[in-house]
Amino acid sequence: MRVLNGVDILLKEPREILGSDHLGLITNPTGVTIGLESTLDVFYDHPDIKLEAVFGPEHGARGDIQDALDVSSHVDERTGLPVYSLYGDHRSPTEDMLDGLDTLVFDIMDCGGRFYTYVMTLTLCMESAKKNGLKVVVLDRPNPINGVSVEGNILEPDYKSFIGLHLVPNRHGLTMGEYASFINRGIKCNLEAVKMNNWSRNQWFDETGLPWVQPSPNMPTLDTATVFPGTCFFEGVNASEGRGTTKPFEYLGAPYVDSKKWSDRLDGLDLPGLLFRRCYFTPTFWRYKDERCGGVQVHVVDRDVFRPVETGLYLLSTLIELHPDDFMFNDPTYDERRHFDLLAGTDQLRKQLADGLPVDEIMASWEPELSEYMKEREKHLLYGEQTH
Hints:
Aspartate Aminotransferase, domain 1; 2 domains; seven-stranded mixed β-sheet; three-stranded antiparallel β-sheet
């Protein structure tokens, strides 16, 4: 049976959940009904829904803005509604933006990795709602890389940022509705999650019967999302994470990389569930724009045993080993802290990799905190736990 997302459940009887509230909607292109109609457009056209404002996260409410670019507030062409940017001058809704509203509705799909900024937007919206006396309704959607598998280190409080605000691992194993409950421990806003129907925790997105709508410009496929929790680390080093190619986060490399040596070294590790292919690519934008890069493509052949975070660490450790004079962790830019450390949620991982600490020892050091996270996570699950 096809999964029905939270929006599809809500639209059956919207007044039961929303009453006659005046609404603000936080959404992007993943906010669609089972018939692929935009939640924004459906809400605007629905006689029982009073949509009065729209809020756009990174990449914009209509998804037309490239990575890391500020989004401007504007008037939506289709509806004439004000669209307030939450990725520009303001990251949180202001009192003026919320004036006249009773409820904020959130309808965006997450990708299952801690770095994704939409969870941070949700957090700030929940805080603003609490401050201004609004209710928050989260329309739940699948965790596309399943809701069972959990992997990585727990973010340290000193490394909170817009690419990681919460003490969760790289791959958190939560849906957006469950994540909202986890977040709300500290905020305590008036929160309601509209659950999905027919979703099982062990499902990957292509098992839901739903079409894939890319959540951001550099997340074009489920394959991208599958490797993202590990290969996103490459944003923090002087190698390309494949932006500017048709395979972001799957193509990895740099002009200084010897593709054969790297792929041979990786193949010798016999990591579970994947193969590495030697490749060459020339990004059309972003890092190493118009420069030929040698590298590897990550091919996941058994996603149920594939461990993206472990794989990301081995990719980095072998690159450091093979190219010690060329490889670098990037210097701080907009933040006094290194971008790699913000991605990692700690400065320890960078130091461990630089010192050549074996990956299995690095991962073993995470186990106590990860175990505690799993206990807390269980309190917020909206759907039964299953082994994967």
